[in-house]
Amino acid sequence: MDPFSTEGELLNIHNAFHSGQYQNVVDFDTTALSTENQLPARVLKLRAQIALGQTENALEVEEDTPDLAAVKALAKQSAGDTDAALQLAQDLAENYPENNTVQVLAATVLQAQGHSEDALSLLSKHQDNLEAVALIVQIHLQQNRTDLALKEVQAAKRWAQDSLLVNLAESWVGLRVGGEKYQSAFYVYEELASAPSTSAALSIVGQAVAELHLGRLPEAEAALTAALEQYPDHAEIIANTIVLNVLAGKPSAELEAQLNQIHSSHPLLIDIQEKSDLFDVAAAKYSPKVSS
Amino acid sequence: MQSSPNMLTKFESKSSRAKGIAFHPKRPWILVSLHSSTIQLWDYRMGTLIDRFEEHDGPVRGIDFHPTQPLFVSGGDDYKIKVWNYQTRRCLFTLNGHLDYVRTVFFHPELPWILSASDDQTIRIWNWQNRSLICTMTGHNHYVMCARFHPTEDLIASASLDQSVRIWDISGLRKKHSAPTSVSFEDQMARANPNQADMFGNTDAIVKFVLEGHDRGVNWVSFHPTLPLIVSAGDDRLIKLWRMSDTKAWEVDTCRGHYQNASACLFHPHQDLILSVGEDKTIRAWDLNKRTSVQSFKRDLDRFWVIAAHPEMNLFAAGHDTGVMVFKLERERPASAVYQNQLFYITKEKHVKSYDFGKNIESPPMLSLLKLGSPWVPPRTLSYNPAERAILVTSPTDGGTYELIHLPRDATGAVEPTDVKRGQATSAVFVARNRFAVFSPASQQVDIKDLSNSTTKTIKPPAGTTDIYFGGTGCLLFITPTTVTLFDIQQKKQLAELAVSGVKYVVWSNDGLYCALLSKHNVTIVTKTLEQVSTLHETIRIKSATWDDSGVLIYSTLNHVKYSLLNGDNGIIRTLDQTVYLVRVKGRNVYCLDRNAQPQILAIDPTEYRFKLALVKRNYDEMLQIIKTSSLVGQSIISYLQKKGYPEIALQFVQDPQTRFDLALECGNLDVATEMARELDRPQIWSRLGAEALAHGNHQTVEMTYQKQRNFDKLSFLYLATGDQEKLARMAKIAEHRGDFTSRFQNAVYRGDVEDRIQMFKEVDQYPLAYLTAKSHGLTEEAESILEACGLTEDQITIPSLQEPFKVAHPIVPTFKSNWPVKAAGHSSFEKALLGEVNDEEEVAQDSFETGDHDTAAVLAKDTMEEEEEDASGWDMGDDINVEEDVEFVNVESTEAGAGSSEADLWARNSPLAADHVAAGSFDTAMQLLNRQVGAVQFAPLKDRFLEIYKCSKTYLPASTGLPPLVNYVRRTTEETDSRKVLPAIPRDLETVASVDLQEGYAAMRTNKLEDGVKTFKRILHTLLVNAVSSDSEVEQAKKIIATAREYILAMSIELERRSLSTDTPEGLKRSLELSAYFTIPKLEVAHRQLALMAAMKLAFANKNYNSALGFANRMLANGGSPKLMDQAKKIKAQCERNPQDAIDIEFDQFAEFDICAASFTPIFSGSPCVIDPFTGAKYHEQYKGSVCRISDVTEIGAPASGLRLFVPAQY
């Protein structure tokens, strides 16, 4: 039986993980779980810890099962030991390509280091693994292949209509496609953000981003301000607030400094720096005929 | 009896005896019921049988169309009445009740009633809505042959073999079946009155009159459409006309002429004529007023049984022993002639009128031609002689007559012409100022006559000539059934001959260079020397034609106005409700005469043919003009362009991916084709794309298409050919995965991988082959182990003599790394024009190949291309691969298909606005655009704006943990999903600028914070410079704000300059005074201008420049404002007026028109040379040309610029 199906014991912890309630996952009481589900639950807890930036536990796990080894690879990646993480991930992908955890975590490591092709070929071996589907969708989106991502989501919807992950993945695609899809994505995130069992920084950011795309700046601002109060150190909230402020013509320098402190390698900052340099190079090509 | 020359047969069918006929009220259809039990539905215009209905047993005699519904009714010898729907082509129901043959059936014009007449001596009325019999009328004591409703009144006329015609009153029936409230007490009393009831007590239908006069049975009866007249036809061979009043009816007269039973008769719907048919095989027309025979037409063998009239048009149909014929009694084409801006034509009343095209005015009648020919025959042709103001009119009466008449100087009414010359001829045309030609086919002779009607010359035309036409000055065109001949009258010599059959009309182009020969179904365009230019065929009849001034022939068929270019390309311009005869086309108007000889103007859209004409003439500018100003996206234009070999132009119009794909393939535009193929994603599409790409040597595209098609064998071969070992290895792996041994073997051979081959042979138990392979490649150990596994020794087997093992050659050049160099797809001059016009900012694709290598590469490419093509022919054999769903492969394919282009790239592609390029991160192209549009050269001040726009172009959506957030692109087109139309959101839109920044600037002015003010206004300029707005009107608004900002920056800069000046020296003081004066020049808001004026006034006054101060005071007073200001101004004015002298002479003339140079702050008087900044419009003295604008800090003064663009129109 699929451990994540609605009757499964792991549904709650799983949903909590994917809606971004990592602390809840860490605190989850797993003693009552059946033995066969102990390992997946442990993996999830470790992953939640990694997501929270606490990699110590995960780094110390023994590599006796591929699942835990995969977690370790992720932890290394997250801790900045990227070469070792890649090595481990590649080994795992080679030896245990059928393992669900390996597929997802090793592919995450591969993709994080830019090996999209390998990540996709590993993920393609999945058997009804929704996490793998979601990851495939994300990779396609990062490659700007919205068409393929859409196909993947539609295929998954056929067998897992109501799953949280499929809904999320559909929203990701929707935010790329735009038009009416913005609104549907908004509904998904709004629903997540408003239900206490799923409300987390992740869902609020999602809601705010959807509103940004819909051009509803005041609503997006309300959501982001509330989120900042609740999660003052969340990089994505800050990044999107910067975007919002600029769009609304408000100052953003303070937030940028804050983001620089929390997450100096955030794509927003890196991108802006690159473009700033690009600007100087490009601008240097022009000069007035007569300097005054 | 001689058949009438005027009757025009339009359609004839061959069938068994036709007993009933009905015209469709709107469509060109006729229903024919046959003696053979069939009902036929014909399109008489096209001459095609549309449908047949065969459910009756035995002859069908009665037939009628419903006036509005898609229904018809039939009655037959099987006693049945059937109601049909011709759309569903089914019999809806059958009305049973008659006890003998049903002779006629008719629908009531408004009520849901059917009237039937039967041999059972009854007439019945049925309600076809509830399918019930509502009235049975008895009284006739023999077969009832015909019964008809009166077109407007509640009357029925019936004809019976009992020799009587009866008129029935059915008003009772109508009352009974209409709303019950309308039945008053009196009505009931009246109906209850036994005197009026018939013998069965039936009051619904009562006999009103019995008309006795025929000596034999009566076959047919008809009401007059408007007059109280009835006509009947009987076996006594007579047609009788009856008249009735409210109280009585009587016989008026008898038409005698039929010499056999008269079968049917009717009144002409519009003219005072009676038409009848009979078993004497004739159709006869009678004058209603004189009751004399007007025309008759005889068939040789067939007796006529029935006649019907079209309810609106001048059309009749008659049924006879072997079918039906549809005919007209007379020609409806009005005789007309065009001279310059005037049309001369003959009306239905036979009046000659003229019509002015320019003024759209009809003249009063000029002449009456009532005496020409017979009264029922309209004139056939009209020829006009402008020199003599004379007309030649021909009439077909009496074997053809012509009349030469001088038109009166003024149109004074329909006067009888006085000086008429006439003669015998069928055709008469003017050929010169004082000569005309007449022709009569009987004598086969053309006479050239002078204006006194005496023959000056006689010409023998070619045998069989049927008509003559004007053939250019001094020439004639002779028309024979198969040829047209051009004849020079002076030289009496035939100049040219062309085989064209059946020409009926000749239309000369306005410049006399071309001529259109119209026959029934063909238009042939010839030059003036009778050389054929083109010909076209129409399935429906061609009626008329006229020439456009640009040399396009506009012609009309029965139902369309169409055009034909000289090269024969033609198309439909519009449809016609009624037939018209074109006489002239000018601009968007087509002038024509309708069948009532009334001039009419039809509006047409000439875009399509003008476009095609421009295309044929390669007039690209005009094409561009047309494309820009009109919507030209019809399928027909696209297929036309494609057909004519302009696929690249067609590509500009098409949206539909399939069509775009086809066109792109045709013009070899692989990029577009690939893009469209992705959208369509069908195997067939990929296969076509692959074939085309292969021909181009674009093997990367080929590879992708094979992947899409899962064409493993071809892929392997492609990798082999391009030397891509790595991918070949992957193919081998895939083959292994798929368990496809053949494919695996192939791949192993391609790769020269002996081990894999041996391994595979072993896997499929082909040990002998495995052994042989191992042995031949010198893998002795392997060979022995195989032997061992099989339990054999080397002695036990015989192997053929081994030769040097074959080694697969590997391509030396790493072809797979890039495509063959292909010449960059050249734009046709049209495309260039289009691109240059629509998007002059678009980057021209760079040729990525270095010119030095080009030649050798091309040669190489050519050679290898040929090889490849040879190989390609062998590739098709691998088509029967087993296409299984192969998960691995799908993903290999998708990753190899590579990353797509991000939305940011699309933005840059979709828009010519700098702001959109900035949002897309394409700063260099954005700068290029700004440079071209407004001459921007110094970008540093724009950096904040650039980064600001870029910063908010993307949002960051956290997705899976452990991976960077998903980037999404913020659009201003939030409703749009079409990737070709999405555009980025740009911060600080026009509204913000107007409502926030501008006010901030004003506030700075008010509060005297000029440094801040300059900054604010410069920021406004920079914000607007890189921005996007949503409409043309907003563009205007933006330009206004730019101008405002310019004026404020200029004003503030002047004042700041003044304040930095020391006034210790006289020069300094003078300059200070000047600057304060200039401060009042820029166009500020009035309140702000007052501040400037106040400052200038005070300074001038303080320095005893009373005259200047007076000027400023006057200006302040003229502007008005707060009382305090006004008081001050008045005071100063009063003081200055006492001594209006300036102590210091400054360069400022308050009465002169001048601008301020924004660099030197000195006046530029109107008329003196200056340069302008392309962005702000600020003016400078000439010496500042080429330096950076002091107002914007960005743009170069006097740089060439195309103008700032802020708005992407929707169709872009």
Automatic annotation (TrEMBL), chain A:
<keyword id="KW-0931">ER-Golgi transport</keyword>
<dbReference type="GO" id="GO:0000139">
    <property type="term" value="C:Golgi membrane"/>
</dbReference>
<dbReference type="GO" id="GO:0006888">
    <property type="term" value="P:endoplasmic reticulum to Golgi vesicle-mediated transport"/>
</dbReference>
<keyword id="KW-0968">Cytoplasmic vesicle</keyword>
<dbReference type="Pfam" id="PF04733">
    <property type="entry name" value="Coatomer_E"/>
</dbReference>
<dbReference type="GO" id="GO:0005198">
    <property type="term" value="F:structural molecule activity"/>
</dbReference>
<dbReference type="InterPro" id="IPR006822">
    <property type="entry name" value="Coatomer_esu"/>
</dbReference>
<keyword id="KW-0653">Protein transport</keyword>
<keyword id="KW-0333">Golgi apparatus</keyword>
<keyword id="KW-0472">Membrane</keyword>
<dbReference type="GO" id="GO:0015031">
    <property type="term" value="P:protein transport"/>
</dbReference>
<comment type="similarity">
    <text>Belongs to the COPE family.</text>
</comment>
<dbReference type="GO" id="GO:0006890">
    <property type="term" value="P:retrograde vesicle-mediated transport, Golgi to endoplasmic reticulum"/>
</dbReference>
<keyword id="KW-0963">Cytoplasm</keyword>
<protein>
    <recommendedName>
        <fullName>Coatomer subunit epsilon</fullName>
    </recommendedName>
</protein>
<keyword id="KW-0813">Transport</keyword>
<comment type="function">
    <text>The coatomer is a cytosolic protein complex that binds to dilysine motifs and reversibly associates with Golgi non-clathrin-coated vesicles, which further mediate biosynthetic protein transport from the ER, via the Golgi up to the trans Golgi network. The coatomer complex is required for budding from Golgi membranes, and is essential for the retrograde Golgi-to-ER transport of dilysine-tagged proteins.</text>
</comment>
<dbReference type="GO" id="GO:0030126">
    <property type="term" value="C:COPI vesicle coat"/>
</dbReference>
<dbReference type="InterPro" id="IPR011990">
    <property type="entry name" value="TPR-like_helical_dom_sf"/>
</dbReference>
<dbReference type="GO" id="GO:0006891">
    <property type="term" value="P:intra-Golgi vesicle-mediated transport"/>
</dbReference>
TrEMBL record, chain B:
<feature type="repeat" description="WD">
    <location>
        <begin position="211"/>
        <end position="252"/>
    </location>
</feature>
<dbReference type="InterPro" id="IPR010714">
    <property type="entry name" value="Coatomer_asu_C"/>
</dbReference>
<dbReference type="InterPro" id="IPR036322">
    <property type="entry name" value="WD40_repeat_dom_sf"/>
</dbReference>
<keyword id="KW-0813">Transport</keyword>
<dbReference type="InterPro" id="IPR020472">
    <property type="entry name" value="WD40_PAC1"/>
</dbReference>
<dbReference type="GO" id="GO:0006886">
    <property type="term" value="P:intracellular protein transport"/>
</dbReference>
<dbReference type="GO" id="GO:0030126">
    <property type="term" value="C:COPI vesicle coat"/>
</dbReference>
<dbReference type="InterPro" id="IPR050844">
    <property type="entry name" value="Coatomer_complex_subunit"/>
</dbReference>
<keyword id="KW-0333">Golgi apparatus</keyword>
<dbReference type="InterPro" id="IPR047312">
    <property type="entry name" value="Coatomer_alpha_WD-assoc_reg"/>
</dbReference>
<keyword id="KW-0853">WD repeat</keyword>
<protein>
    <recommendedName>
        <fullName>Coatomer subunit alpha</fullName>
    </recommendedName>
</protein>
<dbReference type="InterPro" id="IPR001680">
    <property type="entry name" value="WD40_rpt"/>
</dbReference>
<dbReference type="GO" id="GO:0006891">
    <property type="term" value="P:intra-Golgi vesicle-mediated transport"/>
</dbReference>
<dbReference type="GO" id="GO:0000139">
    <property type="term" value="C:Golgi membrane"/>
</dbReference>
<keyword id="KW-0963">Cytoplasm</keyword>
<feature type="domain" description="COPA/B second beta-propeller">
    <location>
        <begin position="349"/>
        <end position="594"/>
    </location>
</feature>
<dbReference type="Pfam" id="PF00400">
    <property type="entry name" value="WD40"/>
</dbReference>
<keyword id="KW-0677">Repeat</keyword>
<dbReference type="GO" id="GO:0006890">
    <property type="term" value="P:retrograde vesicle-mediated transport, Golgi to endoplasmic reticulum"/>
</dbReference>
<dbReference type="Pfam" id="PF04053">
    <property type="entry name" value="B-prop_COPA_B_2nd"/>
</dbReference>
<keyword id="KW-0653">Protein transport</keyword>
